[in-house]
Amino acid sequence: MRRGSILTLVGIGVIAGGIAAAVAVLLPWLPTPSSREAGRIDFVIWFVIVICIVIFAIVTAALLYSIVRFRAAPDDESDGPPIHGHTGLEIAWTLVPTLLVTAIGVVSAIVLSQNDAQGKNVLHVDVTAQQFAWSFSYPDAGGLTTATLRLPKDRSVLLTLRSKDVIHSFWVPQFGQKQDTVPGLTTTLHITPDRLGTFPVICTELCGLGHALMRSEAIVMQPAAFNRWLAQQRKAVGSTSSGGADAGKTVFADNACASCHTLAAAGATGNVGPDLDNLPALAKQAGQPLQSFVRQSIVDPNAYVAPGFPKNVMPQTFGSALSKSQLDALVQFLVSSGKKG
Ligand code: CUA
Fold first, then answer.
1. Distance, CA 188 to ligand 1 centroid (Å)?
2. What is the pLDDT of residues 102-124, one digit of tens each?
3. Are 254 and 241 in contact (CB under 8 A)?
4. Atom of ligand 1 nearest to the CA of 203
């Protein structure tokens, strides 16, 4: 092969590789990894991308060079020379992919086993998915339940995921992993957040009418601030268990009613279900006293469905998941907020 040809091939390869590398690096394809697991997953992705860029550069160089250099003249209708295999070439194109794929497999296996390994002092969080809301409870903190996932930075967290109705899927893009929640099964996901911030919790499995609205937030806090928050919440849970509209507002917030309903008193603007500021009018339509209408709509949502809304969207299991005092407080809160509206 001529020296000039080699230089041309290398030149095209460098340009093609440079363009591919620029597309990979300069565009923000991935969110900033915010957990140790996501950092490792990103390493695997970049490991594969570098291999791909090198192969792309080599193939592009050979292709473009061949198209220009070996193009047949317009009047040339002869066949090319017969070729009967090339042992060296065949060994190379078998061996190189074998080594590359094996390397990717080994790196992936190491990362998977590292991501599955539990750290010390694990924080347990129970994640419950239902149409169309997430709730998070902390079994080590007296079963405190919230609609927002708060986590301490740099601590190993084990999420135990369950679904009350259909298949959902838990996803925080910055944490780098997805995990389905399956009715009747318990799944787990291991996360070690390593960057402070507020990240979206997304349902990434089509689960019904409100799927696109099934969102929450994961807030990663300094460990000291997290412990303070946990202590405060436990105190607040204790003081509102006596009932009242304030307790009802907490039940409303903790069960993510806001993801589907509008209610001015709770700052809620969801529009999957009926507007709860119109509860008195809805009760009149249903021909029931307000209080018993509200209670029935929570415990047995299909008993009366407001015109224009489909059945079976409001979770059937919702009422039974609440304690009697939580249900009473929620009804009281909705009745009193509805009157104002
Ligand atoms: Cu839950 Cu989509």
1. 17
2. 999 999 999 999 998 877 889 99
3. no
4. 2
Model pTM score: 0.70
- The single-letter code of the amino acid at 283 is A
CB of residue 190 inside a 6 A radius of ligand 1? no
Residue 43 Cα, ligand 1 centroid: separation in angstroms? 29
Q: Interhelix angle for 279-286 vs 290-299, to 10°?
A: 90
Burial class, 325, CB count within 10 angstroms (exposed 0-12 / middle 13-18 / buried 19+): middle
Angle at 230 between CA 227 and CA 235, to 5 degrees: 130
Residue 298 phi/psi, 5-degree rounding, is -85, -45
Residue 173 in contact with residue 203, Cβ under 8 Å? Answer: no
Helix, strand, coil tally for the chain in percent (to 5): 50, 20, 30
Residue linked to tokens 């009350």? 164
Read off the pLDDT of residues 243-283 as tens digits, 9 standing for 90 and up: 566 778 878 877 778 778 888 888 888 878 888 888 888 88
Other CB atoms within 10 Å distance of the CB of residue 3: 7
Dist. CA 309 → ligand 1 center (Å): 19
Ligand 1 atom closest to the Cα of residue 212 is: 2
Alpha-carbon span 247 to 101, nearest angstrom: 57
pLDDT tens track for 204-216? 999 988 899 899 9
Ligand 1 centroid – CA 328 distance (Å): 28
